[in-house]
Structures are given as structure tokens and as C-alpha cells.
Amino acid sequence: MFFKILLSYLIGYLRIEVTGYYIERFINLCNSNHILTWNLKKGKNANILLNIEINSLKEIVKLAKRTKCKIKIRNKKGLPFLINKYKKRKIFIASLIVIILLFFLSSNFIWNIEIKEDEENKAYNIQQDIEEAGLKVGQLKRKLNTKEIINKIRLKRDDIAWIGIELKGTNAIVKVVKATEKPDIIEDSQYCNIVSDKEGVVTKINAQKGTAQVKVGDTITKGTILIGGWMEGKYTGIRYVHAEGEIEAKVWYTKTKKVKYKTTETQETGNQEKKFSMKFNNFQINFNKGVSKFKIYDTMETEKKFQLFSDFYLPISIVEKTNKELKKVKKSYSPEEAKNLGIQELEEELDKQIEDKESIINKNINAYEKEDHVEIYVTYEVLEKIGTNDKI
Amino acid sequence: MKNSRRDKINKILEIPQEVYSNVPKIIITGFDEMIVENFKGILEYEDFYVRINTYIGVVNINGFELKLENISDEDIKVTGKIESFDIERIE
Questions:
Q1: Is it true that domain A2-83 has CATH number 2.40.50.100?
Q2: Could you say which of B41, B43, B68 has the minimum Cβ distance to residue A40?
Q3: What's the predicted TM-score (pTM) here?
Q4: Strands A225-228 and A244-260, how do they pair?
Q5: ipTM rounded to 2 decimals
Q6: Where do the domains of chain B lie, and which CATH numbers do they carry?
Q7: Is the Cβ of B44 closer than 8 Å to some Cβ of chain A?
Q8: A-chain residues within 8 Å CB-CB of B43?
Q9: What fold characterizes domain A112-178?
Q10: Which of A44, A246, A291, A335 has a Cα-to-Cα distance from A238 of 20 to 30 A?
Q11: What is the pLDDT of residue A181?
Q12: Is the minimum CB–CB distance between A34 and chain B shorter than 8 Å?
């Protein structure tokens, strides 16, 4: 039934008004003659409104004559009538076609380039290189050769481990994996020294291959040879080897900070205003004019591309500027407070730097109070294994 | 005699009554929709009153703004604010 009504919408249907005294008979006759009628509604007088299919009108007229009812067509509905109505409006149809054409045309271009990479180690200037290699906004998708672009970028840059370009709708997703910088590996067959990479005092030295160049208690700086890659024998003379060994040293990590007693800090007041502007490629239209009403403020810009479907990006974007009002707050610390604050910050910094907490032997905190500030020195004494290989 | 035997078989096979006989089936969904299956014809139709003829009696529906949404060979769907309905038996 529902399907029949749906079909009749495609073919076209009529809403007619039947007036007469034998309406019930008329309905029953329609029914027994298998004429589809729906949405019957009683009018105020002896009339009734109902829908019929367009090709059953002739039969209905016959039945109405038999039951002495009058028929009046109220409405013509359905697709054929709708098309007929819009036949006269040529400009409307033409613009509709143009819009559809534009839509299909614009889906052939790339409107958005998205670069996905690791947040922590971003490849420097990758966007520019991608553009130079040939992947630009507004380029035909057909002419794009992703393999060639990938090869070009890989040839140009040696810090990228892997790059992939995926086309999704009008969106080009470039995935970049940056190669981690590897230290120069010296093979076992090559001769090398072990050289200090930190400053400190040697607490333990154990040379398995090569000759120890420092003693326990020696202070070392960066670059000091700890274990030399040679061996001296009484009879064999000097023989070069690949030095191996363990060296432990006390290393000091020092951080200093000056904390002023009187400082001005900026704080957010919580007030903020939003300004919108539209951007077509490089051309920008501001909706809100004028400067911000705040005296001191922070601006944050977020850009959002227009999106028709999940993957269909248009070259139009809305830029949202958020101005957050700031205020300057004057703060004054007592010498004791300033000292504690500085120490706390420095310790946090050092804790981040030193991974192995158990190897910390000693913490040394010095504070020198001056006229308007306090100087804080925090030193951690850490036992560490040091030394890197260095080619002779 | 023949009829009653068929009835018995149908009862054993649990075939719904409205399928094998002309007995009407009345379905009320909510208070705004009523479907009468196996109906014979419409006796009266007003905005507030519908009389539907079936093979074993007449169904009267009282309400407001009553519409006959669908009419097909077997069933009729009445929508609107249904207040009450009653049955007249034909013996």
C-alpha cells in the first residue's frame, strides 16, 4: 500500500473534492472497483477530500455520475506536475545545472593538504618541499603523480624515513615519518678511543680493552680520552684496538635561577571576544572591524576549512580569532618565599632531565640573597656511566 | 457439518481466524489509529463518526477529525482522535 502511494507520487496524483449525498456509496464503489484512494477527509458540507492516482480519474468520473456526485480537482501533485511547474523557470534550471557541474568540477581538484607527522619531532619545512615537489592546493587530481612526488621529496631530504600521500576526496593526506638521527656506529673491527661526553669526577674505571688514561679521582671535561684505543706491550710495541670498558663518574647537574622579589605577571581575566573572517586562498574578509576592546590581550587563531561532506573540502575557510584579555598582576615575594619558589622550579626541571632517580647521590642547594633578587643554585650529584666511542 | 470440520482442522493448525474466515480483525494502535481488517464497506462517514460494515456486524467509531487514511480491498485505516467505539451484532 505504502509502496503504491510512493509510486503514485512519481506518476502524479490528484486531490479531488467530491460533493454529494451518497458519498459513502461512492467510497464503497471505488473500493469494489479496485481504485486506490487515500487520505480521505470529511469537509464541512456534504463533501469529501481524497487522493487518487492520475490514471484512475476517468473511472472516478464515471462512478461520480452513477452516484450523482460532483467532482472538483483541488490539487495536482507529484513529480510530473512539479517538473511542469519548473519548465517555465529557465534561469533557475540553468543555474541548478551550473551548480551541479561546478560541484563535480571542483571535486577534481585538491583543496586541502593535511600533513600528519609526529608531534614531537617535526620535519622542518616539509610543507614547502611538498609544494615544490608538485603537490599544491588547487591542483588537478588526475595529473597528480604521487609516486613521483614522493621520490622527489625523498631525494631532496634525507631526514625522512617514510612518506606517503593518500588522496581522500579533495583532501590530500601526507604522512611523514621522520628518521631518528642515529649515532655513528663504529664497528668492532675499527679502532677507537672512549671519550668522555660529560664533565665530572671519575669514581670507577675498568678498561677491558685498551689502556686507561685517567685514574679514579681525576676531573674530566668533555673530550677527555678515558680509555685509549691502544695497548703497549714490552715486546710487541704499540698495538691499536677497539677500546672497551666501563667508566663511572660523578656528574654534576647545575641549574641557576634569579627570582626577583617584585614581579609583574600576566593573568587571564576570563573575558574573551571572538572575531571571524573568511579566507579564500589568500584573500581575507573580516566580518568584525576595528581593534580589540581589550588593552592587553592574547590572540589565538584557528582556521577551519569548509567541508561539504566528510572528505570534500572547499578552498574557503573561516578564521576564528579569539582575543583573551590579560591583566598584569604585581606580585611581591618575601626573600624566603622567592627562595622556595626558585628551588621548587629548579628541582622540577632537574628531575625531568635525570631519568634514573636512584643514582642521585647528593643534592646541593645554594641561595644568595641580593638587594632585589635571590640567586639560587641547585646542583645534583649523580653517579653515571659515561663515555662514547670515538674513532682514532 | 462440513464447515465445522474445517474449523476444527484450522483450530488444530492454529491458523489465524481472520485468514480463513470473514471475521474482522480490529487493531488499535495508541488512541489515534485504528485498523479494521476484513471489512465490507462504509455505511456512514462524518468528521466525528464512522460506521464500518463487516460480515458479522457493524463497527461504530466516535471521535474528532476522523480521517480514512487508507482504503484497500481488505482493510481500512482510520486515524484521528478516537473517543469510543462500539459493535452492533447481526444475529
A1: no
A2: B68
A3: 0.44
A4: unpaired
A5: 0.82
A6: 21-89 (2.60.40.2000)
A7: yes
A8: 24
A9: Ubiquitin-like (UB roll) (3.10.20)
A10: A246
A11: 65
A12: yes
